[in-house]
Amino acid sequence: MLYLLSNEFDTSIHNIMYWLRYFNKPFTPIYLNRSIDDFCIHLSDSKQMLELTISNHHYSIDLETDTFFYRRGGFNFVALNIPNVSSQFSVFITNELKTVKQFVERLFYNSSNVTTINSLNKLDVLKYAVEIGLKIPKSIITTKKEALRKFFYENNKKIIVKPLYEGLNIDVGNGFLKTYTSRIEVEDINTFENVFYPTFFQEEVEKVVEIRTFYLKTNFYSMAIFSQENEETKVDFRNYSLNGRLITTTFELPDLVKSKLIRIFEKLRIETGSVDLCLTSSSDFIFLEINPVGQYSMLYNCNYNLDREIAKII
User: Do 195 and 175 reside in the same domain of the chain?
Assistant: First the structure.
């Protein structure tokens, strides 16, 4: 059996299901945004099984023969609510559950028809990019105001701040506050404490276009984003209003850039993901980051029909 692991509200997974039905491929979805009621892992010489109940749906998964496609989300294991326990025992329970969660998720990633993972360390990926020969923005992770000020002036007063992990969406009742990549000005630096929480800064690259590339088993599906045409999107193309216009078109990456990106994916041991790059006025391709979950909905405008391509190979 092919199990699809995703969030039930993810449009892409439902599109992939449509094409799986079209190709007459049997599958079972498991929605990871729902809480796990109970589970049992069987490990022996003769049996390797995972029995799982999620929102009253029971699954008996053969860990040796069943296959998986991971799209997004993480297993929602909830620790037992044991009253009146010491803090040390609470840590013990959390670590026990963490071990199970890591085992199950790693097993699903490694047994997937398209090997992937739900998150990457951006700093690891940047280091790999440099080692492989890709250009990256000058970067600094610091807790020191003076180090930040020096970095600011070394980069002609043009730097940005961005999350090291994932962006934050805060529900404020009538909408959401979202974290975007943002410029840092000297006035911002002046408000910082002398020592602050570790924060990730980069030089602001002068770009002609931004490039979003979806990678799927050595195949590249790329789109050029003309973010510099709109003041809202110059720093982060995701920051645009519905009244704004974001011009996009298909794009073909040079073979040399493709070969280097393939090496990064091989290093990371994953077979899919979305890559963000930018092209400068001097024709340099600057590597920014990889999203292993593989956001590709923006590429629908390019008519790549990626849901169909995924369904064909899983």
Answer: yes
Q: Which pLDDT does position 92 carry in this prediction? A: 83
Q: Classify residue 127: in a domain, yes or no.
A: no
If pLDDT is split at 50, 70 and 90, which confidence band does 271 have?
Answer: very high
Domain co-membership, 155 together with 72: no
Q: What is the pLDDT of residues 242-265, one digit of tens each?
A: 455 677 899 999 999 999 999 999
- Do residue 294 and residue 265 come from a single domain? yes
Take residue 55 and report the two structure tokens written for it.
């929102």
Whose CA is closest to 314, among 112, 116, 30? 112
Euclidean distance between CA atoms 199 and 80, whole angstroms? 34
- Judge contact between 159 and 166, C-beta under 8 A: no
| CA pair distance 196, 85, nearest whole angstrom | 34
Q: What is the largest CA-CA distance in the chain?
A: 66
74 and 17 part of one domain: yes
Q: Which of 274, 285, 288 minimizes the C-alpha distance to 236?
A: 288
- Let me know: does 232 contact 240? Beta carbons within 8 Å: yes
pTM of the prediction? 0.85
Say if residue 159's pLDDT is above 50: yes
Question: 69 is in which domain, residue-wise?
Answer: 2-110
17 lies in some domain: yes
